[in-house]
């Protein structure tokens, strides 16, 4: 199989798993509503800056990337 096609299939499977975990895990771990995320609410407007959520996702992805490079 072409390596590019194989990589795209694996990437798609990972995205599906992340989406399923996000849907199911959102009830137990409120990703996107963590302390430190900024919410500005006005009369007819709501602005949301998920700063802590972005930092947490970045740390987790960095650790996963490090582990994949370590065991490669």
Automatic annotation (TrEMBL):
InterPro entries, alphabetized: DUF2905
Residue stretches spanning the membrane: 7-25, 45-68
Pfam families hit by this protein: DUF2905
Record's keyword terms, sorted: Membrane, Transmembrane, Transmembrane helix
Protein name: DUF2905 domain-containing protein
